[in-house]
Amino acid sequence: MNNTSLQCLAPAKLNLFLHVTGRRADGYHLLQTAFQLIDRSDSLHIQTRNDGILRRTNTIAGVPEHDDLIIRAARLLQSHTGCRLGADLTLDKRLPMGGGLGGGSSDAASTLIGLNHLWGCGLKRQQLMDLGLQLGADVPFFLFGHNAFAEGVGEKLQAIETPECWYLVIEPGVQVPTPAIFSAKELTMDTKPVKITDFSSSAKKNWKNDLQTVACALFPQVDEAVKWLSTYGDAKMTGSGACVFCAFFDENSANEVLKQVPGHWAAWIAKALSQHPMAHLVQT
After folding, report:
1. What is the set of active-site residues?
2. pTM for the predicted model, two decimal places
3. Predicted confidence (pLDDT) per residue in 64-92, tens digit
């Protein structure tokens, strides 16, 4: 690696639980959740340019370059700092879109981390998190660097310790649009708020995803995956869907269940991460 290029990982997240506790006057839903980083990632290669141009070098189906969060993140950092450098960005998408794994948000966060480092912008973690919130509610978490208990719209974060385990994740084969879930009249919006200490000390099986019932009603594929995986443990949907996951405390157990997954689903194993793989590049 030299000081003009960088290979960046953009890891997925799982929501170990997700409660909707209310709604703000501006329409945003108030949430409580626990974010868990896992070692399944998109990969981003950044090559700096001296002419100020920002360019994505590869095509991604269904994502025009001007709408891509990596380009939007790069433009935001460039305009915020007045940096005159540019970059060529090459994104290898491994995480499914519309899966609830935070792939686009993670890509944006890794873009901000990588360019802040390469361009020498000198922004500290909180400054990057404030910028990231302009791109999406999950982006600050990926800049935070650690697994977190989150509140607000997802931007109020406290670090948490989570168990070392392996997750089996099923992709049900459908993209779930987040607005469709949050706008559903059946959505529960008054779950009683919990404390971070409740989560840290309590059995995880009592924690639910309030969006799951709505997603299962609208998308039978998600419902089928939840029911199938529930026979092996505490299966939950992550985010607003569509991916479904279950934790296992040893890799062999996870792999044994992976062998049983019906062939019409994509499925894979990922290990829990304790911190973001690029956290060391961000000043506190």
Report:
1. 13, 138
2. 0.95
3. 999 999 999 999 999 999 999 999 999 99
Q: How much is the pLDDT for 1?
A: 41
Q: Using alpha carbons only, what angle is made at residue 106 by residues 278 and 241, rounded to the nearest 5 degrees?
A: 140
Q: How many domains does the chain have?
A: 1
Please report, for the domain that includes residue 80, its CATH number.
3.30.230.10
Return the structure tokens found at 143.
């800049």
Residues of the domain holding 270: 1-284
Q: What is the SS3 string spanning the chain?
A: CCCCEEEEEEEEEEEEEEEEEEECCCCCEEEEEEEEEEEEEEEEEEEEECCCCEEECCCCCCCCHHHCHHHHHHHHHHHHHCCCCEEEEEEECCCCCCCCCCHHHHHHHHHHHHHHHHCCCCCEHHHHHHHHHCCCCCHHHHHHCECEEEECCCCEEEECCCCCCEEEEEECCCCCCHHHHHCCCCCCCCCCCCCHHHHHHCCHHHCCECCHHHHHHHCHHHHHHHHHHHCCCCCEECCCCCCEEEEECCHHHHHHHHCCCCCCCEEEEEEECCECCCHHHCEC
The stretches in the chain having pLDDT less than 70 are: 1-2, 200-206
